[in-house]
## 1
Amino acid sequence: MNVGLVSNTFSGITGGQGALQSARTSGETAKFSELVERFKAQNEGRGTVSSSQIAENGRLNGEYTTGFGGTYTSQADKASRPTGAAANQANPHVKTSLIDRTSELYEKSMELESYFVKQMLSEMRKTVHHSGESDFARQTYEDMLYDEYATAMTKNAGFGLADQIYLSLV
């Protein structure tokens, strides 16, 4: 079958709009292909970048949460007693260990506790009814706010979950 005949028949049925749409589509496809080729040319010789090259101390570029780095820095934090749930041992015969709150392991333990607190806050947030429409930007910033709430609660509430995690890993 002749493609020109089909194209002319389609243009005749749509009043020329089919040909116009086809021209626009091919023009956009050409622009997109040119853009892809330009990106490929810019990336020549660079290779790939691993996350270890763009991350600093476990934090990614553009990560805007406060985090736990530098939370504990004093000499007393190097050998402190557990708090919260970790201080309330069920077995009185178990000797409580001291915690080095300045260590990287304790920082990661706090991040894990913060994740659990964030999950708790997320479930609680689902019970709040919002008036009006919910857009993507509002949800994103609200999620970032709850990340900060979880970080602040982990630092200040004294749940002791990070202490328990740390003691179980040491």
## 2
Amino acid sequence: MPRIAPGTPEAELPTPCLILDLDALEANLDRMADAARAAGMRLRPHGKMHRSVDLGRAQMARGAVGLCAQTVGEAEVFVAGGIGDVLVTNEVRDPAKLARLATLAAGGARVGLCLDDPAAVAPTGAAAREAGATLDAWIELMCGGRCGVADPAAVAPLAAAIAAEPGLRFAGIHAYEGSAQHLTGDAERGARIATAGERVRAALDALRAAGIDCPQVTGAGTGTWQHEAASGLWTELQCGSYAVMDADYGRIEDPQGQRLDQGWRNALFVLAQVISTPVPGRAVCDAGLKSMSGESGLPLVWGQEGVTATGLSDEHTVLDDPAGALAPGDRLRLIPGHCDPTVNLHDAFVCVRNGVVEAV
């Protein structure tokens, strides 16, 4: 990326680049922080969405108890950037990666990871002891059909094994229903969370019967957090995409029947430039799959009534422009289909306020 100085007008930015609208971002961060407090919930936003120490610090400044990460590398960068409490919401089995997490904990950070297999307890504890550290061990409960303990009754003996292993601390249950997040109807999402809640309740009952305290139940995403918050079961929210939104989340309905992007503001855009209008009604811009994710659908065109994306290739987005509103040189903000993998394609956010660069 060319060096971009604060004060540069958005109209002069090189394209494609990743734009973060600060007013929209800050409104979203404030709204979720306030909502979590009102619900009596801890907020642990998922850092895999933004992969940014700066944005993580902004969430911590608003009361987040820590961040989630999805990889050991993300956890290392967050801790190095001053985030003192990081949960890797994934199983980590590689001995070298376990050693890296233990080293972070030995340095003073609170570091957690997920377990769903009794055979993982001893090597995880050994890595912690070797580093002179204690790791938080969360039991992942299968909710969406990916990783996790399939039988809620098996949570209790696994928790007992964790509690008995020097170097480990039983931190609670990780219960994230990922398959529910992007279902369009709120009632359908609510039904999925109710089913997940039954599994959480059964696991808590099993722990209680074994005399084991469960400190926290963590989970929830941008699409479902209100259902977890209302359940009385979850204690911690892991929402991530709320901070910037994307086209896929924007399409779903909230509990009031409105699109999610009518309440949460789009803060993340790929800035693109029209490079060709080859035939009437068609425009082509210079941002494609190397600038934004396409697995969750085509991008939306921000602020251009009647202009829609019809195709996405390596370096191009093809636009349907029936009114002929676009001309070569025009700059467009594109809302990507999926924020997480889009952010992963870029080196930095170009942060703008009122059309002017404030930071990179």
## 3
Amino acid sequence: MDYDVIVIGAGIGGAAAAYYLGEAGCRVLVLEKERLPRYKPCGGAVPGSVFHYFPFPLDEAIEARVARVRYSYRGQEEVTVPLPNEAVAMVMRDKFDALVLEQAKCEVREATSVTEIVEGEDSVVVSTKSGREFRGRYLVGADGANSITARELGLRRGKFLGAAIEAEVPLAPTAIGDWAQTALFELGALRGGYLWIFPKREHLSVGVGAFRKRKAKLRDILRQEITKFGISPDGVTLHGHPLPIYIRSEKLNTARSLLVGDAAGLMDPLSGEGIRYAVKSARLAVEAIVRGELDKYTTWVQMRSAPT
């Protein structure tokens, strides 16, 4: 057997799974289709509890901490809510994910696209675009909302994806100060979604997400709405990405494979937050593998914890 576990995807869910598997003494291979570190479209809001899941510092990845949240209705009516100390931190995902992966005892193959997954009685064989094949006892699919792992294994066939458009907007130091420690959510610009503005060290992350089954001109909405807050859309590069909407309980594992994070559709259907669920599901996936109880993984995810 080449590996104990093959992890597909080096985002935070895959990086976390690789780290915990390595600590459990498993031989781990991580396959990532992009070159690392890679830009990851994401607002980058991380609940403070996530940092306690790892026994090593991640402060290097923190761009800003959030002390207050502004909720705005169409850029007019507003309410500001203070947050407890260090409740939320803002990160850039390329650095955050890479820091976790660097701590993992694993082999990483970047720029490696998976084309086929065949699960047998005692192993899982993963074929790649280059023609290479890799064999593992188990597989963790952490390859995002459009997961090839889920597709190849016949999981999440009835999934629904929302959509988001986001951008990183550079600002002068004086302008950044106006947004220090402040995150904003604007409601009312579109039904079933919201606009966000998050502070980073030298720029703002802005975006708009739609969580319902209807078409919306997200690019136009984003450009129009950010001007209400004194942010110019001129010259801003927009990035689109799918949002995995959790709409029902569904099977997230086979006999030898498990889905984590966005691949499993684990995103908060109200806030759109997914980093916490990616890490928590990775921990549960590793627990299932170490115990040899993959058949219980889906139930554990729905319960949010494994039985002691």
## 4
Amino acid sequence: MHFNSRFWLKFSLINLLIVALIGLLMRYKIGFEFPFFDQKHLQHSHSHFAFTGWISHTIMVLMIGFLEFRIKNLDARFLKKYNLILIANLICAYGMLVFFIIQGYGLLSIIFSTASIVVACIFAYFYYQDLKAIPKEYLSKNWFKAALFFNVISSFGTFVLAYMMVTKNIHQDEYLASIFYYLHFQYNGWFFFACMGLLFSFLNLKTNENPFYKNVFKLFFISCIPAYFLSTLWWDLPLWIYCFTVLAAFVQVYTWFRFLFIIVKSKRDFLHQFQPFLRYLLLFVAFALSLKFLLQLVSTIPAISQLAFGFRPIVIAYLHLVLLAIFSLFLLFYIFAKALILLQKNIKIGVITFSIGVLINEIILAVQGISSFSYTVIPFVNVLLFGAAIVLVSGIGITVFFSLKAEKK
């Protein structure tokens, strides 16, 4: 018996299309009149479904696939428990998708949101147990352990937010700190460490090739927790916490660029066996991640951090950089580079269109964010962002259509 990654990854692509469609609807409401649906409710649905239905679901599927090819004599119980977890996770994701639109932070949306955390914890428990069967020489093992850890602790921020919403006892600073806590340990913890584990597995990196590979994990893990305070620099932090935060930003920049230099030097021949399109996609992801770490370092300058967190377009641009340009494109790269879904000509066109949409969207958001420093209004910016959203939807729509069509054949 085999774990059917391709079946579950079809849901991943469909869910990414749904995320893009809700984003398109939100952009339409901003640029034009559309009285139906509450914008805040759409935003909650969009973000929760993107995290649970697209990125987390896809990471779970790919991590399960990692286990399948490295554990001998898998039995039916292995497949059954993970299939049930994925079903439960999708039910929670679709529940949040619907009920956040209908009621915002209401009873049912909070129930599905809480249930998704329970599912994540169950997955973490079983996956951690199964990782024990993986030999230590697989460097991905520690990355996946850390990813599970950060996914579990990120839930603390969600519980605080839910409590505030239910009790209507909202304090602005605590509210923002809880949101950024959840976001940080999701995308800098769960998403980042899981994707790095997948990357280490994909490149087949071994300690005997370069001893720094082990240190990459240690340095990122140690710096991840103090790096949370990069999101709270608008608070009046004690000097010692601020110093640790700056140090964490420096450590991550140093670690990433040294690791990147080693990979470019040692794995160039390996990467050349893949299509140029896939290599450029990975290069785009590497550039975006490099930019992210540099922006984090620059944000430690107090004056700049006050400006950045004071303007919503800056925050939106940064989140889209992380979630679209880095994690979404990396996951698409991994799926097609590993041939988990066969890359045909029309699918390739769809992924290229989607990546162009990501680039256009990020450029517009960056220009809007930078111009907000001087309170300069960019003409027709909402129309331009709506156009970028159309490109994103078109790209992933083409990808989904031809992926499902190819599967039927």
